[in-house]
Amino acid sequence: MANMELVTSHQGSPHITVDQVRELFAGLSGDLTGIKVFSNLDDSLNYTITDVLQIEIGKGQGLAGGFFFQLLDKFTWNLDPGTVGYSRIDMLFLVIYEDSLTNIQSIDLLYVPGLDYPNGGSGAVPETPTGTNIKEAFPLYRADVKDGSILSVTSYA
After folding, report:
1. Span 83-109, mean pLDDT?
2. How many other C-beta atoms are found inside a 10 Å radius of the C-beta of residue 27?
3. Is 101 strand, coil or helix?
C-alpha cells in the first residue's frame, strides 16, 4: 500500500496548511514565486473616494501570490496631505507577516506615502515594504495626490 495521507480542511488530521494551498494554486496556474498579481475574487474590494484625502475600500476576498485572504470590514485609507505646489504617489500594500519564532502568519494593509515632488515633475512609486517579519507584500492601490487632493486612484485588484 502507498504511503499517503488525505489532506483536507475537513475534521480530522491532518488539516491543509497555507503553504499547501499555495502549492495547489501553483499546480493549477503555474509557479507562483515572484508573481505579484492580485485577484479580486468577488469584485467587492472596490474603492470610493469619500473625502479630499480619504478612500474607503469595501470588504471582500482576493488572491495574492497564492495567498487567499478576506477583508472582513470596510477599510478607510486616510492619506497624508502633502505640500501645496507638490505632488506625490502613495501606495497601499497588502502585507503578509510571519513571526520568525512561532511561524504564525498574519495579514494587514500598510500605507506607504511617497516623496513630494514639484508639480509638473515626475515622482517615484514607493518601495515595496521589506523587513525581517514581512514574508510577502503586494500592491493593492496607488493614489496620485496633488496639492493635498487625490487626483486619481489605481487598483491592482
Report:
1. 92
2. 10
3. coil
